[in-house]
Protein backbone atom coordinates (compact mmCIF):
# COMPACT_ATOMS: atom_id res chain seq x y z
CA UNK A 1 0.00 0.00 0.00
CA UNK A 2 1.31 3.48 -0.85
CA UNK A 3 1.81 6.50 1.38
CA UNK A 4 -1.21 7.99 -0.44
CA UNK A 5 -3.56 5.45 1.11
CA UNK A 6 -1.97 5.95 4.55
CA UNK A 7 -2.61 9.66 4.15
CA UNK A 8 -6.18 8.84 3.11
CA UNK A 9 -6.74 6.96 6.38
CA UNK A 10 -5.40 9.87 8.42
CA UNK A 11 -7.54 12.35 6.50
CA UNK A 12 -10.65 10.23 6.94
CA UNK A 13 -10.05 9.92 10.69
CA UNK A 14 -9.85 13.69 10.73
CA UNK A 15 -12.96 14.05 8.61
CA UNK A 16 -14.95 11.72 10.87
CA UNK A 17 -14.37 14.32 13.55
CA UNK A 18 -15.51 17.13 11.27
CA UNK A 19 -18.57 15.12 10.29
CA UNK A 20 -19.68 15.24 13.94
CA UNK A 21 -20.70 18.89 13.83
CA UNK A 22 -22.08 21.42 11.38
CA UNK A 23 -19.19 23.62 10.37
CA UNK A 24 -19.79 26.70 8.28
CA UNK A 25 -17.32 28.49 6.05
CA UNK A 26 -15.84 31.50 7.74
CA UNK A 27 -14.06 34.39 6.11
CA UNK A 28 -11.32 36.81 6.98
CA UNK A 29 -11.43 40.51 6.42
CA UNK A 30 -8.91 42.57 4.49
CA UNK A 31 -7.90 44.68 7.51
CA UNK A 32 -4.44 46.19 7.76
CA UNK A 33 -3.34 43.80 10.50
CA UNK A 34 -5.15 40.59 9.63
CA UNK A 35 -3.46 38.84 6.74
CA UNK A 36 -6.04 37.83 4.08
CA UNK A 37 -5.35 34.45 2.57
CA UNK A 38 -7.36 31.82 0.84
CA UNK A 39 -6.57 28.32 1.97
CA UNK A 40 -7.46 25.83 4.62
CA UNK A 41 -4.65 25.21 7.06
CA UNK A 42 -4.19 21.99 8.93
CA UNK A 43 -1.32 21.09 11.19
CA UNK A 44 -0.50 17.64 12.52
CA UNK A 45 -3.23 17.95 15.16
CA UNK A 46 -6.06 18.83 12.76
CA UNK A 47 -6.04 22.62 13.21
CA UNK A 48 -8.53 23.67 10.55
CA UNK A 49 -8.74 27.19 9.17
CA UNK A 50 -11.02 28.46 6.43
CA UNK A 51 -10.04 31.91 5.16
CA UNK A 52 -11.47 33.97 2.30
CA UNK A 53 -11.73 37.72 1.74
CA UNK A 54 -15.01 39.08 3.07
CA UNK A 55 -16.39 41.76 0.75
CA UNK A 56 -19.81 43.19 0.04
CA UNK A 57 -19.85 41.23 -3.19
CA UNK A 58 -19.09 37.98 -1.36
CA UNK A 59 -21.88 38.69 1.12
CA UNK A 60 -24.42 38.79 -1.71
CA UNK A 61 -23.44 35.53 -3.40
CA UNK A 62 -21.42 32.38 -2.66
CA UNK A 63 -17.73 32.73 -3.33
CA UNK A 64 -16.60 31.10 -6.53
CA UNK A 65 -13.91 29.17 -4.63
CA UNK A 66 -16.39 27.57 -2.22
CA UNK A 67 -16.85 23.85 -2.69
CA UNK A 68 -20.35 23.03 -4.03
CA UNK A 69 -21.36 20.42 -1.45
CA UNK A 70 -24.75 18.83 -2.13
CA UNK A 71 -27.73 19.21 0.18
CA UNK A 72 -27.67 15.86 1.96
CA UNK A 73 -30.95 14.22 3.06
CA UNK A 74 -30.24 14.46 6.81
CA UNK A 75 -33.08 13.25 8.98
CA UNK A 76 -31.94 15.76 11.62
CA UNK A 77 -30.54 19.26 11.08
CA UNK A 78 -26.97 20.12 11.97
CA UNK A 79 -27.99 22.43 14.79
CA UNK A 80 -25.75 23.62 17.61
CA UNK A 81 -28.73 23.70 19.96
CA UNK A 82 -30.21 20.27 19.30
CA UNK A 83 -30.20 18.09 22.42
CA UNK A 84 -29.47 14.44 21.67
CA UNK A 85 -29.63 11.46 24.05
CA UNK A 86 -26.37 10.49 25.78
CA UNK A 87 -24.46 7.75 23.89
CA UNK A 88 -27.08 7.62 21.15
CA UNK A 89 -25.97 7.16 17.55
CA UNK A 90 -26.62 10.82 16.85
CA UNK A 91 -24.43 11.73 19.84
CA UNK A 92 -21.61 9.58 18.46
CA UNK A 93 -21.86 10.41 14.77
CA UNK A 94 -23.97 13.55 14.51
CA UNK A 95 -24.01 16.68 16.60
CA UNK A 96 -23.41 15.58 20.18
CA UNK A 97 -21.36 18.73 20.79
CA UNK A 98 -24.15 20.64 22.53
CA UNK A 99 -22.64 21.99 25.77
CA UNK A 100 -21.35 25.48 25.07
CA UNK A 101 -18.47 26.82 27.15
CA UNK A 102 -17.37 30.45 26.64
CA UNK A 103 -13.69 30.68 27.61
CA UNK A 104 -13.42 34.24 26.31
CA UNK A 105 -16.63 36.05 25.44
CA UNK A 106 -16.74 38.22 22.30
CA UNK A 107 -15.17 41.58 22.94
CA UNK A 108 -14.92 44.55 20.59
CA UNK A 109 -11.99 46.94 20.73
CA UNK A 110 -13.69 50.24 19.84
CA UNK A 111 -10.45 51.74 18.55
CA UNK A 112 -9.87 49.00 15.97
CA UNK A 113 -13.21 47.13 15.85
CA UNK A 114 -11.39 43.82 16.10
CA UNK A 115 -12.83 40.92 18.06
CA UNK A 116 -11.17 38.40 20.34
CA UNK A 117 -13.17 35.42 21.58
CA UNK A 118 -12.92 31.67 22.17
CA UNK A 119 -15.43 28.95 23.02
CA UNK A 120 -15.80 25.18 22.95
CA UNK A 121 -18.73 22.85 22.28
CA UNK A 122 -18.37 19.81 24.53
CA UNK A 123 -19.74 16.30 23.90
CA UNK A 124 -20.55 14.22 26.99
CA UNK A 125 -20.62 11.11 24.81
CA UNK A 126 -17.21 11.53 23.12
CA UNK A 127 -15.67 13.43 26.06
CA UNK A 128 -14.12 15.94 23.68
CA UNK A 129 -14.79 19.39 22.28
CA UNK A 130 -14.96 21.26 19.02
CA UNK A 131 -13.44 24.67 19.76
CA UNK A 132 -13.50 27.91 17.82
CA UNK A 133 -12.06 31.34 18.26
CA UNK A 134 -11.77 34.73 16.62
CA UNK A 135 -9.01 37.32 16.53
CA UNK A 136 -6.43 34.55 16.75
CA UNK A 137 -2.73 34.83 15.89
CA UNK A 138 -0.43 31.87 15.19
CA UNK A 139 3.35 32.17 15.50
CA UNK A 140 5.03 29.20 13.75
CA UNK A 141 8.34 30.10 15.40
CA UNK A 142 6.86 28.96 18.71
CA UNK A 143 5.66 25.63 17.36
CA UNK A 144 8.25 22.86 17.25
CA UNK A 145 7.60 19.97 14.90
CA UNK A 146 9.41 17.68 12.49
CA UNK A 147 10.01 19.26 9.10
CA UNK A 148 8.79 16.16 7.20
CA UNK A 149 9.94 14.84 3.86
CA UNK A 150 13.15 13.32 5.25
CA UNK A 151 14.74 10.31 3.58
CA UNK A 152 13.26 7.25 5.26
CA UNK A 153 16.63 5.78 6.16
CA UNK A 154 17.46 8.91 8.17
CA UNK A 155 14.53 8.50 10.53
CA UNK A 156 14.36 4.73 11.02
CA UNK A 157 13.47 4.02 14.63
CA UNK A 158 12.25 7.54 15.39
CA UNK A 159 9.37 7.56 17.87
CA UNK A 160 5.98 8.92 16.90
CA UNK A 161 6.11 11.48 19.71
CA UNK A 162 9.05 13.16 17.94
CA UNK A 163 6.76 14.02 15.03
CA UNK A 164 4.04 15.66 17.11
CA UNK A 165 4.02 19.46 17.54
CA UNK A 166 5.15 21.08 20.76
CA UNK A 167 3.75 24.49 21.70
CA UNK A 168 5.58 27.20 23.58
CA UNK A 169 3.64 29.71 25.62
CA UNK A 170 2.19 32.23 23.18
CA UNK A 171 2.29 29.95 20.13
CA UNK A 172 -1.27 31.21 19.72
CA UNK A 173 -2.53 34.58 20.94
CA UNK A 174 -5.94 36.24 21.11
CA UNK A 175 -6.58 39.94 20.83
CA UNK A 176 -7.88 40.96 24.24
CA UNK A 177 -8.43 44.63 23.37
CA UNK A 178 -7.04 47.72 25.04
CA UNK A 179 -8.18 46.68 28.51
CA UNK A 180 -5.65 43.86 28.78
CA UNK A 181 -2.33 44.56 30.48
CA UNK A 182 0.82 43.95 28.47
CA UNK A 183 3.93 42.00 29.36
CA UNK A 184 2.13 39.45 31.50
CA UNK A 185 1.30 35.79 31.11
CA UNK A 186 -2.48 35.88 30.89
CA UNK A 187 -3.49 32.40 29.80
CA UNK A 188 -6.77 31.80 27.99
CA UNK A 189 -7.67 28.67 29.96
CA UNK A 190 -7.03 27.22 33.39
CA UNK A 191 -5.91 23.67 34.05
CA UNK A 192 -9.39 22.97 35.42
CA UNK A 193 -11.01 24.08 32.15
CA UNK A 194 -8.66 21.88 30.13
CA UNK A 195 -9.42 18.88 32.33
CA UNK A 196 -13.14 19.52 32.05
CA UNK A 197 -13.56 20.21 28.34
CA UNK A 198 -10.39 18.98 26.62
CA UNK A 199 -9.47 15.93 28.74
CA UNK A 200 -6.29 14.09 27.91
CA UNK A 201 -7.99 10.71 27.51
CA UNK A 202 -6.12 7.55 26.56
CA UNK A 203 -3.18 9.13 24.72
CA UNK A 204 0.16 10.33 26.04
CA UNK A 205 0.30 13.60 24.13
CA UNK A 206 -2.92 15.51 23.39
CA UNK A 207 -1.84 18.10 20.83
CA UNK A 208 -5.15 20.01 20.69
CA UNK A 209 -5.16 20.31 24.49
CA UNK A 210 -1.58 21.61 24.44
CA UNK A 211 -2.44 24.05 21.64
CA UNK A 212 -5.30 25.55 23.65
CA UNK A 213 -3.11 25.59 26.74
CA UNK A 214 -0.54 27.71 24.88
CA UNK A 215 -3.02 30.49 24.00
CA UNK A 216 -2.50 33.75 25.86
CA UNK A 217 -4.53 36.94 25.76
CA UNK A 218 -2.63 40.04 24.63
CA UNK A 219 -3.55 43.73 24.27
CA UNK A 220 -4.32 45.13 20.84
CA UNK A 221 -0.96 46.88 20.70
CA UNK A 222 0.81 43.49 20.80
CA UNK A 223 -1.55 41.80 18.37
CA UNK A 224 0.39 42.32 15.16
CA UNK A 225 1.08 40.08 12.17
CA UNK A 226 3.82 40.21 9.60
CA UNK A 227 2.73 40.21 5.98
CA UNK A 228 2.93 36.66 4.65
CA UNK A 229 3.32 35.83 0.98
CA UNK A 230 0.84 33.09 0.06
CA UNK A 231 0.20 33.99 -3.56
CA UNK A 232 0.08 30.38 -4.71
CA UNK A 233 -2.75 29.54 -2.31
CA UNK A 234 -5.22 32.00 -3.83
CA UNK A 235 -5.99 29.49 -6.56
CA UNK A 236 -6.65 26.59 -4.21
CA UNK A 237 -10.01 25.39 -2.98
CA UNK A 238 -11.15 26.19 0.52
CA UNK A 239 -10.85 22.50 1.31
CA UNK A 240 -7.16 22.33 0.44
CA UNK A 241 -4.51 21.62 3.07
CA UNK A 242 -1.60 23.69 4.33
CA UNK A 243 0.63 22.87 7.26
CA UNK A 244 1.35 25.35 10.02
CA UNK A 245 5.08 24.66 9.72
CA UNK A 246 5.04 25.96 6.14
CA UNK A 247 4.08 29.51 7.05
CA UNK A 248 7.01 31.92 6.90
CA UNK A 249 5.73 34.22 9.65
CA UNK A 250 2.89 34.95 12.08
CA UNK A 251 -0.58 34.69 10.58
CA UNK A 252 -3.83 36.11 11.98
CA UNK A 253 -7.26 34.60 11.52
CA UNK A 254 -10.68 36.08 11.96
CA UNK A 255 -12.21 32.68 12.70
CA UNK A 256 -10.47 29.38 13.44
CA UNK A 257 -12.00 25.96 14.17
CA UNK A 258 -10.20 23.21 16.09
CA UNK A 259 -11.65 19.73 15.64
CA UNK A 260 -11.18 16.76 18.01
CA UNK A 261 -8.30 14.38 17.49
CA UNK A 262 -8.87 11.13 15.65
CA UNK A 263 -8.39 9.33 18.97
CA UNK A 264 -11.63 10.93 20.20
CA UNK A 265 -13.86 9.79 17.35
CA UNK A 266 -16.13 6.70 17.28
CA UNK A 267 -13.65 4.87 15.03
CA UNK A 268 -11.07 4.86 17.84
CA UNK A 269 -13.49 4.65 20.76
CA UNK A 270 -15.12 1.65 19.08
CA UNK A 271 -11.98 -0.34 19.95
CA UNK A 272 -12.87 -0.18 23.65
CA UNK A 273 -16.58 0.82 23.72
CA UNK A 274 -19.60 -1.04 22.43
CA UNK A 275 -21.11 1.47 20.02
CA UNK A 276 -24.29 -0.36 19.12
CA UNK A 277 -25.25 1.63 16.04
CA UNK A 278 -26.38 0.32 12.66
CA UNK A 279 -26.36 2.21 9.39
CA UNK A 280 -29.48 3.02 7.40
CA UNK A 281 -30.35 5.59 4.76
CA UNK A 282 -31.33 9.09 5.85
CA UNK A 283 -34.87 8.79 4.36
CA UNK A 284 -35.42 5.54 6.28
CA UNK A 285 -34.24 7.08 9.53
CA UNK A 286 -36.36 10.17 8.97
CA UNK A 287 -39.46 8.00 8.62
CA UNK A 288 -38.51 5.68 11.48
CA UNK A 289 -36.42 7.51 14.12
CA UNK A 290 -34.19 5.21 16.17
CA UNK A 291 -31.39 6.12 18.58
CA UNK A 292 -29.56 2.90 17.65
CA UNK A 293 -29.36 3.73 13.94
CA UNK A 294 -27.39 6.32 12.01
CA UNK A 295 -27.20 7.74 8.51
CA UNK A 296 -24.22 10.01 9.16
CA UNK A 297 -21.56 7.60 7.82
CA UNK A 298 -23.48 7.21 4.58
CA UNK A 299 -23.78 10.99 4.35
CA UNK A 300 -20.03 11.25 4.74
CA UNK A 301 -19.61 8.84 1.83
CA UNK A 302 -22.03 10.98 -0.19
CA UNK A 303 -19.84 14.02 0.46
CA UNK A 304 -16.78 12.17 -0.84
CA UNK A 305 -18.58 11.08 -3.99
CA UNK A 306 -19.99 14.55 -4.56
CA UNK A 307 -16.54 16.10 -4.27
CA UNK A 308 -15.45 14.05 -7.29
CA UNK A 309 -18.59 14.77 -9.29
CA UNK A 310 -20.34 11.42 -8.81
CA UNK A 311 -24.14 11.31 -8.36
CA UNK A 312 -25.47 11.18 -4.81
CA UNK A 313 -28.70 10.02 -3.16
CA UNK A 314 -28.52 6.63 -4.92
CA UNK A 315 -30.06 4.49 -2.19
CA UNK A 316 -31.19 1.59 -4.36
CA UNK A 317 -28.88 -0.36 -6.64
CA UNK A 318 -30.23 -1.81 -9.88
CA UNK A 319 -28.90 -5.08 -11.20
CA UNK A 320 -25.88 -4.23 -13.37
CA UNK A 321 -26.37 -5.10 -17.04
CA UNK A 322 -22.64 -5.69 -17.53
CA UNK A 323 -22.33 -8.10 -14.60
CA UNK A 324 -21.26 -7.82 -10.99
CA UNK A 325 -17.94 -6.16 -10.22
CA UNK A 326 -15.81 -7.87 -7.58
CA UNK A 327 -13.18 -5.34 -6.53
CA UNK A 328 -9.97 -6.82 -5.12
CA UNK A 329 -8.27 -4.00 -3.20
CA UNK A 330 -4.54 -4.59 -3.56
CA UNK A 331 -2.05 -3.72 -0.87
CA UNK A 332 1.62 -3.07 -1.58
CA UNK A 333 4.06 -3.74 1.27
CA UNK A 334 5.56 -0.56 2.67
CA UNK A 335 6.99 0.97 5.85
CA UNK A 336 4.00 2.49 7.59
CA UNK A 337 6.17 4.40 10.06
CA UNK A 338 9.90 4.73 10.85
CA UNK A 339 9.25 3.22 14.31
CA UNK A 340 9.08 -0.20 12.61
CA UNK A 341 12.90 -0.10 12.38
CA UNK A 342 12.95 -0.78 8.66
CA UNK A 343 10.84 -3.93 8.86
CA UNK A 344 8.20 -4.36 6.15
CA UNK A 345 5.18 -6.21 7.52
CA UNK A 346 2.94 -7.99 5.02
CA UNK A 347 -0.80 -8.22 5.64
CA UNK A 348 -1.36 -10.87 2.92
CA UNK A 349 1.83 -12.64 1.91
CA UNK A 350 0.31 -14.50 -1.08
CA UNK A 351 -1.88 -11.69 -2.38
CA UNK A 352 -0.95 -12.25 -6.04
CA UNK A 353 -1.70 -15.97 -5.72
CA UNK A 354 -5.14 -15.18 -4.26
CA UNK A 355 -5.86 -12.70 -7.04
CA UNK A 356 -4.81 -15.16 -9.76
CA UNK A 357 -6.98 -17.89 -8.22
CA UNK A 358 -9.98 -15.56 -8.13
CA UNK A 359 -9.35 -14.52 -11.71
CA UNK A 360 -9.37 -18.16 -12.80
CA UNK A 361 -12.56 -18.87 -10.80
CA UNK A 362 -14.35 -15.88 -12.29
CA UNK A 363 -13.44 -16.88 -15.85
CA UNK A 364 -15.05 -20.30 -15.29
CA UNK A 365 -18.13 -19.05 -13.45
CA UNK A 366 -21.18 -19.79 -15.61
CA UNK A 367 -24.14 -18.78 -13.44
CA UNK A 368 -23.73 -15.04 -14.12
CA UNK A 369 -21.18 -12.57 -15.39
CA UNK A 370 -18.60 -11.47 -12.82
CA UNK A 371 -15.92 -8.88 -13.47
CA UNK A 372 -12.84 -9.13 -11.24
CA UNK A 373 -11.39 -5.62 -10.85
CA UNK A 374 -7.71 -5.31 -10.01
CA UNK A 375 -7.77 -2.55 -7.38
CA UNK A 376 -4.21 -1.25 -7.63
CA UNK A 377 -5.08 1.82 -5.58
CA UNK A 378 -1.44 2.85 -5.21
CA UNK A 379 -1.40 3.51 -8.98
CA UNK A 380 -4.87 5.02 -9.36
CA UNK A 381 -6.10 8.57 -8.86
CA UNK A 382 -8.45 9.15 -5.96
CA UNK A 383 -11.35 9.66 -8.34
CA UNK A 384 -10.62 6.31 -10.01
CA UNK A 385 -10.55 4.66 -6.59
CA UNK A 386 -13.92 6.12 -5.58
CA UNK A 387 -15.43 5.10 -8.92
CA UNK A 388 -14.19 1.51 -8.46
CA UNK A 389 -15.70 1.40 -4.97
CA UNK A 390 -19.14 2.67 -5.95
CA UNK A 391 -19.30 0.33 -8.96
CA UNK A 392 -18.47 -2.77 -6.89
CA UNK A 393 -21.00 -5.39 -5.79
CA UNK A 394 -18.34 -7.07 -3.62
CA UNK A 395 -15.17 -5.59 -2.15
CA UNK A 396 -12.36 -7.93 -1.08
CA UNK A 397 -9.11 -6.89 0.51
CA UNK A 398 -6.56 -7.39 3.26
CA UNK A 399 -6.87 -5.24 6.35
CA UNK A 400 -5.46 -1.84 5.39
CA UNK A 401 -6.21 1.81 4.72
CA UNK A 402 -7.50 1.09 1.20
CA UNK A 403 -10.65 -0.43 2.71
CA UNK A 404 -11.52 2.93 4.26
CA UNK A 405 -13.14 3.66 0.90
CA UNK A 406 -16.09 1.47 1.89
CA UNK A 407 -17.69 4.62 3.34
CA UNK A 408 -18.50 5.47 -0.31
CA UNK A 409 -19.82 2.01 -1.22
CA UNK A 410 -23.40 1.47 -2.39
CA UNK A 411 -25.95 0.20 0.18
CA UNK A 412 -26.04 -3.37 -1.15
CA UNK A 413 -22.26 -3.79 -1.46
CA UNK A 414 -20.81 -6.75 0.45
CA UNK A 415 -17.43 -6.53 2.22
CA UNK A 416 -15.04 -9.50 2.55
CA UNK A 417 -11.98 -8.63 4.66
CA UNK A 418 -8.93 -10.90 4.87
CA UNK A 419 -7.30 -10.42 8.29
CA UNK A 420 -3.84 -11.62 9.23
CA UNK A 421 -3.21 -12.75 12.82
CA UNK A 422 -1.08 -9.65 13.54
CA UNK A 423 -3.74 -7.18 12.41
CA UNK A 424 -6.97 -8.30 14.05
CA UNK A 425 -8.59 -4.91 14.40
CA UNK A 426 -12.30 -4.19 13.96
CA UNK A 427 -11.99 -0.86 12.10
CA UNK A 428 -13.62 -1.94 8.86
CA UNK A 429 -16.15 -4.24 10.47
CA UNK A 430 -17.29 -1.23 12.51
CA UNK A 431 -17.47 1.05 9.46
CA UNK A 432 -19.49 -1.59 7.62
CA UNK A 433 -21.86 -1.93 10.59
CA UNK A 434 -22.29 1.84 10.99
CA UNK A 435 -22.91 2.21 7.26
CA UNK A 436 -25.27 -0.77 7.08
CA UNK A 437 -23.17 -2.98 4.79
CA UNK A 438 -23.05 -6.77 4.87
CA UNK A 439 -19.65 -7.80 6.23
CA UNK A 440 -17.66 -11.05 6.19
CA UNK A 441 -14.15 -11.81 7.44
CA UNK A 442 -11.55 -14.49 6.84
CA UNK A 443 -9.21 -14.69 9.84
CA UNK A 444 -5.81 -16.12 9.02
CA UNK A 445 -3.39 -18.00 11.28
CA UNK A 446 -0.55 -15.90 9.91
CA UNK A 447 -0.53 -13.83 6.73
CA UNK A 448 -1.04 -16.69 4.22
CA UNK A 449 -4.54 -17.20 2.83
CA UNK A 450 -5.90 -20.49 1.49
CA UNK A 451 -7.18 -19.78 -2.02
CA UNK A 452 -9.94 -22.47 -1.82
CA UNK A 453 -11.23 -20.82 1.38
CA UNK A 454 -11.34 -17.37 -0.23
CA UNK A 455 -13.08 -18.72 -3.34
CA UNK A 456 -15.60 -20.63 -1.23
CA UNK A 457 -16.49 -17.50 0.77
CA UNK A 458 -16.82 -15.41 -2.40
CA UNK A 459 -18.94 -18.12 -4.03
CA UNK A 460 -21.34 -18.00 -1.08
CA UNK A 461 -21.61 -14.23 -1.33
CA UNK A 462 -22.29 -14.33 -5.05
CA UNK A 463 -25.13 -16.78 -4.49
CA UNK A 464 -26.86 -14.07 -2.47
CA UNK A 465 -26.79 -11.98 -5.65
CA UNK A 466 -28.47 -14.84 -7.55
CA UNK A 467 -25.23 -16.10 -9.13
How does this structure look, described?
This protein has 467 residues and is an alpha/beta fold. The chain has two domains: 19-265, no CATH class; 316-464, Rossmann fold (3-Layer(aba) Sandwich), CATH 3.40.50. Helix content is 23%, strand content 19%. It has twelve helices and 17 strands. The strands form four sheets. Strands 1, 2, 3, 4, 5, 8, 9 and 10 form an eight-stranded mixed sheet that branches. It has a five-stranded parallel sheet with strand order 14-13-15-16-17, sandwiched between helices. Strands 6-7 form a two-stranded antiparallel sheet. Helix 9 (351-363) crosses helix 12.
User: Measured on Cα atoms, how large is the radius of gyration?
Assistant: 24 Å
Q: Alpha-carbon distance between the termini?
A: 31 Å
Helix content: 10-25%
What is the H-and-E element order? HEEHHEEEEEEHHEEHEHEHEHEHEEHEH
Total E-strand runs:
17
Low-confidence stretches: 11-65, 227-238
On the 0 to 100 scale, the average pLDDT is: 78
Give the DSSP E fraction (strand runs of 2 or more residues).
15-25%
Assembly state (oligomeric): single chain
What does the secondary structure layout of this molecule look like, with pairings?
Layout: H1 3-18, E1 40-41, E2 47-50, H2 56-60, H3 89-93, E3 99-109, E4 114-123, E5 128-138, E6 143-144, E7 166-167, E8 172-175, H4 191-197, H5 207-214, E9 216-218, E10 251-258, H6 266-269, E11 278-279, H7 282-287, E12 293-294, H8 296-307, E13 324-329, H9 351-363, E14 370-375, H10 382-390, E15 394-398, E16 414-419, H11 427-435, E17 438-443, H12 451-464
Parallel strand pairs: 8-9, 11-12, 13-14, 13-15, 15-16, 16-17
Antiparallel strand pairs: 1-2, 2-10, 3-4, 4-5, 5-8, 5-10, 6-7
Amino acid sequence: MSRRNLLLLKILLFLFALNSVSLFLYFTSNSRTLTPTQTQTQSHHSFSLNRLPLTDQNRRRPHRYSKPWPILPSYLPWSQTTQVPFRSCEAYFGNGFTTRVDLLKPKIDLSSNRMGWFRCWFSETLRSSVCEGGGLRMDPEKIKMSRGGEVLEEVIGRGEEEELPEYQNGAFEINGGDGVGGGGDQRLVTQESLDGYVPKGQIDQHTMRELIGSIRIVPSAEFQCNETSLEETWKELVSSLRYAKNFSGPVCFRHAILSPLGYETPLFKGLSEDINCHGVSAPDLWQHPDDQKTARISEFGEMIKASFGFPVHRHHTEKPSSGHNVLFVRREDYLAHPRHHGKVESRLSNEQEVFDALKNWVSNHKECKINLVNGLFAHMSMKEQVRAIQDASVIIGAHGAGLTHIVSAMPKTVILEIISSEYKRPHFELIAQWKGLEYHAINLEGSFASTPVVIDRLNGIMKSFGC
